[in-house]
Serine aminopeptidase S33 domain-containing protein (Didymodactylos carnosus), 313 residues
Amino acid sequence: MNVEEFEFFSNYEDKVTGKLKLFGRNWRCSNAKAVILIVHGFGEHSGRYGHVAEIFNKHNIAFVAYDTRGSGRSGGERGYVPCLNAVMDDLEAAIGKVRESKYYPDVPLIIYGHGTGCITQLSHIQRRKSKSLLYQAMILSTPAITIAQRPSAIQYLLVKTFGYLAPHFRLPLGGNKDKREYSTDKDVVEKYRTDPLVHDRWPAGTVSMFLQLGYEFESAIIDFPVPTLIQQGSVDTTTPAERIRAWANKAKGPKTYKEWEGFDHELHNEPEKESLFKHILWWLNTTLNLNIESSQHPEIVPLKVLTDTISKE
């Protein structure tokens, strides 16, 4: 694979520290028919998506990822997000980086979010609706708009209080690395736990923001402005499938919901992930008319049994 590392600055400018430097990876391919920009989940980094990029590159789809602020090799305090505008500005800066590239000036752009990365996506289409025209499709993978163990009213009040008074204070939450398993693949879990670039720091301000946005989006009827594929694992112990299913069902716009039986939170890291990628490729091919020839890629077959599509409104 042809991967390039790059750095760029966020569009968000802090009054004290200025614009934060972010790190990214660009997996190029020849004759790209589309480009995917990944917004990874909390605590991880873009380097965990190399195998995903390889799949898409084989089908002439370029793949770009950036480490979100406070994660991986990007700057910033680990896990700390000063405000919602910061992560939305980061996303727009990353989109700008993709579009200014000589490799992808005119091809369709797909924003692919995982976990809390989906919250950034949803915030962007809800609060900056005119900017959604910057991309042509979205993929939401196990969107972290809800969590299995919701805090009580008192706990939520405490989180909001700490988030306001001491936003950098690290809350005593269960660590991601040692106590959670996001995949049924034990090798993936072990690599995650020993990855030095993965962190489990949850500053109060960040937790408060994500919880508040999660409550807002779960109760909202989202009207998707671009074709959107929502994917969920049936045994996800982080974001319960029944809640994501209900949320997707009430949403409006051109959306498709797919639930993967026996898959946990990191769908792209499950033992049967090949089926997941086949489905994404089929959806992209039919949604964006990418003309990925079935004769060249016989595994991409638009079988109805692969998908559970919610009617478009």
